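User: Reviewer 2 asked us to show a designed sequence for the structure in our supplementary figure. I'm pasting the structure tokens here. Could you produce the per-position amino acids so we can include them in the response letter?
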């Protein structure tokens, strides 16, 4: 009788166990499938992997011994951490910037030395390291280079803030992300928060601003203020812009050090050309002084393009001579040693004419934009 009573109970228990197992299996399978096809989840995983990679690089170089782990960060900080730039990926120092002597001196005196010798500078109540720095001037003249060199010289960590992510609908929760920028910087200080094209993000507030954007800007400023009043934090917001006149006045007030990085003059253009061509073969007939004189109005990046395009034209000439209409694979290895790879006057002349022409086209297209007058 007892046995007969127990038998159905065992069956019931078996059924319950099977039911639970099937339910659990279905749940985890469904979860796995959703995680595989959900784009948001996939993006979060990518961010996590990228953040982990960047943190690993940072920790490897960290001499203070204080490691920052992925587990120390919340979801929003992780999204920002994916935009960290490891020191080995920056690799730009003063030696990589030609000209701009006054700017370098100013940055050294007002920023680098005070950051590197904080104890000494703290002795004076008159001095405080600027928590906000603005680099402004025409495009391609070295603003980003200066920002990177500051990070390298001071060995500070570098968040290259991609402002579009703060307003991106995929990330959502703009305000939490804005907060995460500062909390992450706090966790890994000394740290530079670099905002390129800061005018596009923190432009003068207007009625046309979306409510969420306006709130995020306000929050950003509040967090920045927290930084400015904290005496023991070593976090600097470094902004770069081509259009300083578009930046909100309240933001400009938070950036006491404002440096104009203008177009290079003749002597600076010569320095830049020498730096760019340092490791290239250049024929002795090429007069770099003359080239510097003929490139009035060129930015550093225009000069780089000039040299690159001269090299392209030279290589084309070499290839035409070597290969002609022949088969590249067959002929190249045999005559390679005989090639003259030195850039010559003709290469530069061709490249200069091409660049001047394209600059002219650009200028006529953007007649209303007159950078020179704005500064
Ligand atoms: N002073 C300089 N010395 C050496 N190279 C320079 C200099 N200025 C510009 N360059 C060259 O131009 C490139 C662009 O410079 P950079 O990105 O710093 O310009 P930018 O002012 O930040 O421009 P944008 O406003 O377009 O962001 C550099 O990678 C470098 O090759």
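Assistant: Here is a per-position design you can include in the supplement:
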């Amino acid at each position: 009788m007892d046995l007969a009573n127990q038998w159905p109970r065992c069956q019931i228990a078996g059924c319950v166990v099977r039911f639970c197992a099937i339910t659990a299996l279905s749940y985890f399978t469904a979860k796995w499938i959703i995680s595989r096809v959900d784009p948001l989840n996939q993006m979060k995983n990518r961010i996590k992997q990228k953040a982990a990679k960047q943190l690993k690089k940072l920790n490897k170089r960290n001499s203070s011994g204080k490691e920052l782990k992925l587990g120390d960060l919340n979801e929003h900080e992780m999204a920002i951490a994916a935009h960290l730039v490891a020191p080995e990926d920056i690799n730009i120092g003063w030696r990589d910037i030609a000209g701009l002597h006054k700017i370098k001196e100013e940055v050294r005196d007002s920023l680098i030395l005070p950051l590197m010798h904080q104890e000494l500078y703290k002795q004076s109540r008159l001095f405080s390291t600027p928590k906000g720095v603005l680099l402004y001037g025409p495009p391609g003249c070295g603003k980003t280079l200066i920002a990177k060199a500051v990070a390298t010289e001071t060995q500070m960590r570098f968040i290259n803030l991609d402002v579009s992510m703060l307003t991106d609908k995929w990330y959502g929760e703009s305000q939490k992300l804005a907060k995460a920028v500062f909390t992450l910087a706090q966790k890994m200080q000394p740290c530079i928060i670099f905002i390129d094209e800061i005018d596009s993000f923190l432009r003068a507030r207007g009625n046309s601003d979306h409510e969420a954007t306006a709130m995020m800007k306000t929050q950003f400023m509040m967090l920045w203020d927290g930084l400015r009043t904290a005496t023991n934090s070593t976090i600097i917001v470094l902004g770069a812009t081509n259009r300083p006149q578009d930046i909100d006045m309240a933001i400009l007030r938070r950036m006491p050090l404002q440096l104009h990085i203008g177009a290079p003059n003749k002597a600076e253009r010569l320095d830049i050309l020498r730096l760019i061509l340092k490791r290239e073969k250049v024929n002795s007939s090429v007069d770099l002084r003359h080239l510097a004189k003929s490139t009035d109005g060129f930015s550093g990046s225009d000069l780089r393009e000039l040299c690159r395009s001269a090299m392209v034209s030279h290589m084309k000439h070499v290839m035409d001579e070597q290969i002609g209409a022949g088969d590249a694979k067959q002929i190249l290895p045999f005559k390679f040693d005989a090639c003259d790879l030195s850039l010559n006057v003709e290469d530069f002349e061709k490249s200069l004419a091409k660049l001047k022409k394209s600059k002219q086209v650009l200028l006529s297209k953007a007649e209303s934009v007159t950078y020179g007058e704005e500064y």
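For the response letter, you might also mention the following. Residues 97-100, 139-145, 196, 240, 242, 272, 275, 300-301, 304 surround adenosine-5'-triphosphate (CB under 6 Å). The longest strand covers residues 235-241.
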